[in-house]
Amino acid sequence: IEDDKMKTFEELESTVRSYSRGWPTVFEKAKGYKIWDTDGKEYIDFFAGAGALNYGHNDETMQEKMIAYIRDNGIIHSLDMGTTPRKEFLERFKDIILTPRNLDYKVMFPGPTGTNSVESALKIARKVTGRDTVISFTNAFHGMTIGSLSVTANSFKRHGAGVPLHHSVSMPFDDYVEDQDTIAYLERFLEDRGSGVALPAAIILETVQGEGGINAASMEWLKKVDDLCKRWDILLIVDDVQAGCGRTGTFFSFEPAGIDPDIVCLSKSIGGVGLPMALTLIKSEYDQWGPGEHNGTFRGNNLAFIAATEALTNWETDHFSKSIQEKADVLRKGVQAIISKYPELDAHQRGRGLMQGIAIGKDDLTDDICAEAFQRGLIVETSGPNDEVIKFLPPLIIDKEGIEKGLGILDDSIGATLS
Ligand code: PMP
Predict the structure, then answer these.
(1) Which residue has the higher pLDDT, 198 or 221?
(2) In the predicted structure, residue 194 carries a pLDDT above the cut 90
(3) Tens digits of per-residue pLDDT, 16-48?
(4) Could you tell me the distance, in angstroms and rounded to a whole number, from the CA of residue 142 to the centre of ligand 1?
(5) Do residues 376 and 409 make contact, with C-beta atoms less than 8 angstroms apart?
(6) What ipTM was assigned to the predicted interfaces of this complex?
(7) How many whole angstroms from its chain centre is CA 131?
(8) 279-283 and 105-108 as β-strands: parallel, antiparallel, unpaired?
(9) Which of 108, 271, 320, 364 could form an SS bridge with 314, CB 3.0 to 4.6 Å?
(10) Which residue CA neighbors atom 14 of ligand 1 most closely?
(11) Rounded distance from Cα 158 to ligand 1 centre (Å)
């Protein structure tokens, strides 16, 4: 990166930084589905803070409510104090999300981020069952701390831990191995008590693997995993950190499968405008923590509660979720048109709702395409074990025009990369 404005980053920041190397500029402002850099250049955001901005940048009502709260000297930090925003969030979450879906969960604030939610889920599953192993799936991503990383099936990410991670077993995800019945594989593993591998405490899964390449499990497969969990008395943890909060069209991504996971992890967009917030939803019977057994200083941020409560109102009418499905169709059709236009890419469409991707069969092109797209004003990133998938995660509030404009930039970027 030669540009002067990137120099301070390069000199001061640890090498852990990654996204900003792909987007070498300094961003300044954002609204809805658009971002502007310090030169005033406009970008369409198909990344949405890795799924943390389902409701777009700087939603006006959320902004106004947060500003008013600060101006009135509202309490910002909350730790374990009861505050008005915390109380309102919990009441609204119950009324708008849990009760209409007949879900009997205790709501826990495990810390500020997705990995905090996963850690708490793994902890409580182990505590409740008295077992230690957790099954996860090929290409799963659950976070970067030791527990969540141990169920993350990505050797590159695991390499960051330096030494082997324990207490997890990875199984093939739905459709991962062609012509193989992954449920039968899982069942054989569970039945094989003679091999010395202990019965697991839990199975953790994403219904659509975000970082792992936009691999969407079928509803039938999810139901079978749920059945297996019930049959073997294993807890089912759905990590809805990226696929939840409406990303796939329903509030929880598992809703169309008709399953009721024992534990659900939520983060990213639950904070409304990109504020750090996480929830762990635990079936009442498994809420077996003693007071103080899982805590942390930033377990509740009142500004996030305010934005989150406002975000929930979207689910009071079904108009919002219907609009997601309609936009998802626009995205799907546009992606299919690009795939047909460039047969040499050997590309395939993937995903559910507004969580979609193009898997590109032709080697090592995705990074070049995304870099070209950035130059042309589109923020989009890759996913998958070999970065072979271009991932589309626009804010859910994007309109048809925004989707078409973004796909137009992508189309031109592919054309330019191939020429
Ligand atoms: N689970 C899933 C499915 C995720 O996509 C992510 C983040 N990409 C995490 C957990 C971890 O969340 P965080 O980065 O907020 O710790």
Answers:
(1) 221
(2) no
(3) 877 777 899 999 999 999 999 999 999 999 999
(4) 5
(5) yes
(6) 0.99
(7) 27
(8) antiparallel
(9) 320
(10) 114
(11) 14
